[in-house]
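Tokenise the fold.
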Amino acid sequence: MDSTYAPVIINIENGELVHQRILLIYGRAGPQDKEFESNITVEHHSDNFPSTTWQVFNSHFKCLVHLDPGLNDIKFILDTEPFSSDLQPLITIFQVNYVPLLQNPPINLAILVAKDSKETIDIPEEKHPDDSKLEAVKAKLRCAGYLWQAFTAEQMNRHGFGRRVFRLDEEWTEDTISNQDYKLRQTAKIHIIRSSYTLEQILDPEIAQQSPIRDDNKKDLYAIFMEGLREYGAPFDKKCFVAGLVLDSHYDASPNMKYIRGHAALGGGNGDIQLGIFGSHLTHAWPKYLEEVVSCFQNDITIDENRLANDNGECGTWWKCCNIGIGAFLHEVGHSLGSPHTPSGIMLRGFNNLNRTFTVKEPNNHSPITPSEEEGAHWHRCDAVRYRFHPCFRLPSDPPIPNSSNNVGATFLLLDDLLLVRCPAGISLIEFYVNENVVGYIEYVEGDQTEVTLEIPEIKENYGDDKTSAIQLKVMARNQTESIIEDLQKYQEENKIVLPEHGVAYKSNCLGQVDSENTSEFQILFNQFSEERGYVSLERIVVKYAYYIDSIKFFLSDNTQLKIGSDDREGTEKEFVFDEGERIVEIKGNSGWYIDGFDIKTNLGKRSDWFGGHGGEDHILKTPNDEAEIIGLYGSGGYYVNTLGIIYKKI
């Protein structure tokens, strides 16, 4: 027989280094000019994992291969009977080196269970009652986690970022990833979060995401899940990433309901916990084992809509339930990793095609599904660039991030029609949004880009066709901080000002958050002249603070003073006195909702003490270049000092 019919692995090199337990393989086997269906059996030289069998369709095959840490010898055995009278199978032996990235923060898999839960999920009548039980759900979530990992690793490699991928939190326990054995292995840990909330509270129609009687004043499922994680303790008592399944979700088919109670599809962050959640209403269609992956993604049984949810009208068959259940959940995990909605892919609604990643056949499709036909089943380039620098995706070969840059965000500086974006931690991505949709982006994956100059007219020309729509600009730094200009046109109009004596001047972006209802704005110039007051300069500042900046008092040479913020609380008070001709050339600040803390550097090389706390993101405010100078400060304050920025002009 022609040896060229033997299995050929296409998407990975022999002996390549990978970092995930389950490896997605795409290859060709058998005659490529003939229609046929066959099978490939995958065997492990170590015998630590059972052999598995995968489809071959018109010579194309995809399979999921279990790896042990270290060097793996994998045998791919093609069944030749469907296309040859010679019944001798063809064998390809392939090596893969698996090194887990144990130094990276993991994604934790968690299931929220009501206080008085029945510990079951909705399932079709055709399925065994055991498939509804918590132990089956744990196995399904574990399998889904490894599918997410295999998919993402393949995607990152296609984007040119190597075999980088997040890891799952694992433990040494009885493994469920195969239905042929239940050996002890290092496998994904499933945290069971016993909620203090009852089943009635979790299934409350007024907190269901799809409910027409939703009450936004009630604590929602996301907050309930967060509360459960915090009550659980470690590992959720520090910075962590969590994929959370709500076990007790239930499709209410009664005529006045017809929506899923106990379900929310949400992802993001709150404090140290980055969480993506999803309901269990589609989990009945998920595979529990690798051996079920193909059948679950190809099962064309129609669901009983009197019993099960047809979520978004896109889950009418079991295989589509599998797509959206696993894929839309991954979409929410993507949000927890920092991804916004993108023009295509998983972060749009590309998860409808998730089956195409793992199978070469699709119901009602007569052509093989090759990587080029996977359509929506991809991470968008913006997602991949984000993950390239994400702490969950770091490779040992990546240079360390200096501690001084861990929390530094970008600052924006205007100069005529130019916008300078500056971030000492390095800029990875700039995105442009119109009506909350990404309409363009610029990536910086090579080198160490700490400053970028953008031409505002060019941005408007490229993305501002609709004059009524604001262009939002979002900057991602390599340390995962995110800085935003909500409306570029408005920013340019408001931050270019004309001052008596000084002429045209500019304002930087302000640190902190504007609260127009409870604050008053201020602006102070270091040196100014007026007919009434003559020449006036800033002589000293007094800062009062505790964890935040309570107030700043500015004392001028004509004995006038300006105070911003409040003196009503106990706190530390410090003073900085300016010598004659001395002025501020740089401000280092920490900010979140308020100004947490800051210090100043002057043109005489002096630096003040640190005023305040160290919460929020770090920022550095200084002029765009040596041809400009800081001439004043602006901002706002109320109960605290809310915002702070610099005013500068060309020399």
